[in-house]
């Protein structure tokens, strides 16, 4: 752990994300199929840096909102959001899709689109709520899991979490079978106390968004208000797994005996917070590790000396927001808005999402 | 695919693609986070959108989607459409699998590569050669999550007696290379305890004994290995075996300089309670934690011993997690009262 905590390079991180929103080099073409998630990391960073109300022009925010709404698409599998325009053409209506479409909306993109719009304080008057509920219904499989798209695609704890987060924002759970989904979550538990992305898989830590399956599992259970479903011994075993996976550097590992990665500071740190055990870890090592992952020209990397990206930048900042340093440390630059660990957004944004996305609107 | 070298890299310049109308990506609003595509990528995806619009599923679609995948292996629409085309053409899938052998190693960390492979093997229903292929991939990246998940899926999905036959030897080989490979330990748990009872393994107490012997030997060689301790805890929890039954094995690992039982027996390994190796770094924090759990479970006066062990972790052997060990002390005491 560094003796002196380096300051949070707020402008550098905001600029790193603003630059990505302006455009990305060809080498980042692999982000194209998940662009909405990338937009969310960038907007989430700007939200945590306090840039949304003051630092961004209204006209710019307006054009960002328009772009996100342009990805809402309706079809026989309900209404959701696409990752971006990668399959859009001028020859057909871009806001619809059909059953054998290569351009269907996607679960994780829908969750990140809704949160992104909430960050931008959209009024959600354009949201097709009944269509969204149908989308959730169409994605759920017999084993309780959710496919990423209404007609297939991968199904793991990430999509379960996103489906539950959407239900929570809607304040409506009529589109999903909660009990079956909880049974699927339970089937992903491993002997270590963590969770695998799918049944039989190792407790992890997969490097994706939303990442840590333990986070996806624990957050889903609590989003559904079913925290009591977790027995005391299961809760303790999960807690132990989370805490044992913190390295003396302050960073967290995604899996037993692997190296630390800044994104797990959030996935593990938020899980500990949801399990109401924040007092069992120290804030300073968590923040020190993140401070050491800052890239000198802005952005935060997975580990010290690596190259930054919006994914690690946002999740590192979100983790820091969950573990505020005591005032006595005088680390004023690290003062961040309070974060809602269940929805993974600032508390203000989460409140906005629940108020304006809710079905009673 | 064979004479690709002789052709222009651009589909727009290839005569055999003349009949396809390329469809550029269209944005009705100002783009957000636009990617500055290379001309080659833009050209290929323009033709891909054109093909999808026409609904064409022909051999040239395989060439086009392979081209896109090589430029962007995460392009899941290209993967999806490629699979649909393979199904529509009804071509033998062995050739596709050989191509995937190359792409899987190249794009090991891309989910789509593994998802596509699953779909193919469900069609060919020939899982046996896959085990060797997976083993090869794990030579490249011994902890790749997708690769291990694929192996677990393959075994569980086909659930063929012959497939399972050498899994324990396989795990053993992986752990010989790296005893801290948690993916291998997890796989062992999956094979032994999570995937049904196979022939020769009906006597579960015998199986448990075998696994205890195995993990104890691994711990004795490298005690500071949380993967092995977690495996030990896992099989005890799973079989509802009290931790206290392991107390005599764990005890020497809790001491800085344990007294070796008897010099004359130095060369004979005690299979029940193997002693820490000569160069082991002791005491081992995971052993102290385990021993504290033993004493907590016994309750009564043993709680005092548990508290001392947790205190030693908090103050000395794992001071980084001080708050957690102090929490364990508080919890145990509050339960006792």
Description:
The complex is a heterodimer of chains A (361) and B (337). Chain A is mainly alpha-helical. Chain A has one domain: Glycosyltransferase, CATH 1.50.10. Helix content of chain A is 45%, strand content 3%. Chain A has a two-stranded antiparallel sheet with strand order 1-2. In chain A, strands 3-4 form a two-stranded antiparallel ribbon. Chain B has helices at 39-54, 59-71, 76-89, 94-106, 111-124, 128-140, 145-158, 161-164, 167-177, 182-193, 204-221, 226-238, 247-250, 285-298, 302-317, 322-336. The mean pLDDT of chain B is 94. The chains are: A mainly alpha (361), B mainly alpha (337). Chains A and B meet through helix 1, helix 2, helix 4 and helix 10 of A and helix 1, helix 3, helix 7, helix 10 and helix 12 of B.
Characteristics of this structure?
heterodimer; A: 361 residues; mainly alpha; Glycosyltransferase; two-stranded antiparallel sheet; two-stranded antiparallel ribbon; 45% helix; globular; B: 337 residues; 16 helices; 0% strand; elongated; repeat (chain A)
CATH class of chain A: Mainly Alpha
Poorly predicted parts of chain A: none
* SSE succession of chain A: HHHHEEHHHHHHHHHEEH
Radius of gyration of chain A equals 19 Å
* Global structural class of chain A: mainly alpha
Give me a quick take on this structure.
Chain A has 361 residues and is mainly alpha-helical. Helices cover 45% and strands 3% of the residues of chain A. In chain A, a hairpin with a 2-residue loop joins β1 (72-75) and β2.
Describe the protein's topology.
The complex is a heterodimer of chains A (361) and B (337).
Chain A: H1 10-22, H2 35-48, H3 51-54, H4 58-69, E1 72-75, E2 78-81, H5 107-119, H6 129-139, H7 157-170, H8 178-187, H9 213-223, H10 232-244, H11 262-274, H12 283-292, H13 310-322, E3 339-340, E4 345-346, H14 347-357
Chain B: H1 39-54, H2 59-71, H3 76-89, H4 94-106, H5 111-124, H6 128-140, H7 145-158, H8 161-164, H9 167-177, H10 182-193, H11 204-221, H12 226-238, H13 247-250, H14 285-298, H15 302-317, H16 322-336
Helix pairs in contact in B: 1-2, 2-3, 3-5, 4-5, 5-7, 6-7, 9-10, 10-12, 11-12, 14-15, 15-16
